[in-house]
Amino acid sequence: MIALRTSWPAVVLAALVTLATAAPLVTPFAPDHLDLAHGHERPSAAHWFGTDALGRDVLTRVVYGARISLAVGLLSAAIAGASGVIVGGIAGYIGGGIDDALMRATDAAIAVPRLPLLMVAAAVLQPDVSLLVLLIGLASWMETARVMRAECLSLRSREFVDAARALGAGHARILFVHLLPGAAPAVVVSGTLAVGRGILLESALSFFGVGVRPPQASWGNMLYQAQATLGTEPWLALFPGLFIFLTALSVNLTGDLIATRRRSVEKS
Amino acid sequence: MLRFLLRRALQSLPLLLLVSLLVFLLIHAAPGGPLAVYLSNPSVRPQDIERLRHALGLDRPLWQQYFAWLAAFARGDWGYSFTDGRAVSERIFDRLPASLELVGASFVVSLALTLCAGIGAAVRRMGWFDRVTTALAFAGISLPVFWLGLLLQMIFAVALGWLPSAGRATVGAAGPGDRLEHLVMPVIVLSFVQAASWSRFLRASMIDALGRPFVLAAEARGLSRARVICRHALANALAPLVTVVLLDAALVVSGAVVTESVFAWPGIGSLFTEALARRDYSVLMALLMLTSTAVVVLNVVADTAYAILDPRVRL
Questions:
Q1: Quick one: A140 exposed, middle or buried, by C-beta within 10 A (0-12, 13-18, 19+)?
Q2: What pLDDT does residue A82 have?
Q3: Does B29 sit within 8 Å of A108, measured CB to CB?
Q4: CB distance from B152 to chain A under 8 Å?
Q5: pLDDT tens for residues B241-256?
Q6: With contact defined as beta carbons under 8 Å apart, do B88 and B78 qualify?
Q7: ipTM beyond cut 0.90
């Protein structure tokens, strides 16, 4: 019973991923199917989440938008995680002046206001989804780098690292084969936080009209379009935002769950 | 102390140079470059563009342009807005009071929320108050800021009609009550999001402080619970919170940009999104540079504050 209660965020996430991948099976409509005769409709049995000004089914667009949000969140977190692991690993494993320099750079990168800079970059470069993923990923490697560095610092003086070195293992091998598995749980936790942040950043960029471009549906750009008719068609703003919130919340709670499990494993 | 400040200021310079280079290159990578606004305007002739390009020095090598821009920026000459021709500094200073009002008010509110939630949750760990504030904090870090704003507008402005949906004041009705009504929703949005992360931090450091021997000693001397919590535990838990609050300046900037745009609050944040929509690059460059500088300065202040509050730290 307790397991069921604490793992509901993971269940929600699994359901969202299933919905997104099976999008054409979930809904009878196409995401950009126009039906001007049935525009501006309230939620009904035929259109659970209503329709927008062009008569497009909002539920359909939310489900297809889930593909974008989840893909951007996961892939940008993968990029952020990989670059963070490399920077943090090198800093923590080698130490000394290189460590100082890399950590100063990390502090500096954290200090830069992330969203405004990304907004300008996205406005200038007019990215497609893959470039958007790259931009968001490159803007959020710092937290993972800090975590990875701290883990490597504490792991590198352990006996098994000395043993590996005595056996003739090279630096890269020690870092990725011996240190990385030990650091993995902490890195995974910071990675889940990066997924949530990636989803929120994508939706914010799209909300300001510089992220995912219409007609492609993304939760952020649906909210951007909903802003004009907030008073008359609130369902247009309600559902996409609810899904962003639900997804980010489940990701963050899952990360917290992994972190708690890890602490209790370490204690026992 | 002075030497420490000087050293940190020097250390922050490379960061600012890096940001300036990044911003500069980004703008010049834009299709059409800094003159994109004019290129898309049919009433501007090609020879005018050429003339402008020469007058603004855009035909010089890139590195010369960069240093010229940097030198001018450092002198306080931030150029002219491409959209209305006014000095960028003038446009920014016009908008500054509104932003300071909003950020200041939400700073006070979020600090109050943080203290209540953080202390209350730490004192009765795993109690109902702790559970509720934990849930709220998770909601706060997972909520898209702009959606929270839209939601409040839908409920309190559209459906209930209690509060004005946007702006800083009603035209013609400039009483203090009216100003306050306009302030309510943006402040709720900004301070909820900030208090969500700060209160988690205060809770953790309060729990840590409450477990220390000096708290036990204070209790053994028979001091009241309230006195132990406020004078002994809180005093120790606050020092790390101060640094976290100051280091979060970058987040506050992002939050203000989003909140001001949603509520059409006439501050720096909405100036930024307006400039973004019109590709007004001179305004964008100045704003990015200024906010980065402000954040860097606050970071140095954070380090200094920590040293002052915690006598164990030597500068």
A1: buried
A2: 94
A3: no
A4: no
A5: 888 888 788 788 888 8
A6: yes
A7: no
Tell me: pLDDT of B44 over 80.
no
Residues contacting residue B190 through CB under 8 Å, at least 6 positions apart:
B102, B103, B106, B110, B252, B255, B256, B259
| Contact by Cβ (8 Å): A166, A104 | no
Look up tokens 């001007």; give the residue: A36
B11/A104 CB distance under 8 A: yes
- Residue-wise pLDDT for A157-207, tens only, equals 888 888 888 888 888 888 888 888 888 888 888 898 899 899 999 999 999
Residue with tokens 């068609």: A233
- CB contact (8 A) between residue A234 and residue B158: yes
Residue B36: C-alpha distances to residues A96, A106, A217, B49, B53 (Å): 46, 33, 28, 10, 11
In angstroms, rounded to a whole number, what is the distance separating the alpha carbons of residues A90 and B155?
Answer: 51
Nearest to A237 among B139, B150, B276 (CB): B150
- For residue A121, the chain B residues in CB contact (below 8 A) are 26
Q: What is the pLDDT of residue A163?
A: 87
Q: Report domain extents, chain A.
A: 17-267
Do B157 and A218 form a contact (C-beta atoms < 8 A)?
no
- In this prediction, residue A148 carries a pLDDT of 92
A226-234 own/partner pairs: CB under 8 Å, 24+ apart: A226/A52, A226/B150, A227/B150, A229/A53, A230/B150, A230/B153, A230/B154, A230/B158, A231/B154, A231/B158, A232/A40, A233/A40, A233/A50, A233/A52, A233/A53, A234/B154, A234/B158
Of A119, A237, A252, the CB nearest to B276: A119
Q: What pLDDT shows up at residue A79?
A: 95
Residue A127 neighbours by CB under 8 Å, 6+ apart:
A134, A135
| Pairwise CB contact (< 8 Å): B254 & A115 | yes
pLDDT digits (tens, 9 = 90+) for B214-226: 888 888 888 888 8
Q: Which residue of B has its CA nearest to A101?
A: B11
CATH classification of A17-267, choosing from 2.160.10.10, 1.10.760.10, 1.10.3720.10, 3.90.1720.10? 1.10.3720.10
Q: What is the pTM of this model?
A: 0.86
In chain A, what are the helix, strand and coil shares in percent, each to the nearest 5? 75, 0, 25
Question: Each residue of B263-297: pLDDT tens digit?
Answer: 988 989 999 998 888 888 888 888 888 888 888 88
Cβ–Cβ < 8 Å for A257, A11? no
Nearest CA in chain A to B284: A120
Contacts of A113 in chain B (CB under 8 A): 250, 253-254, 288, 291-292, 295
- C-alpha closest to that of B287 among B275, B278, B298: B275
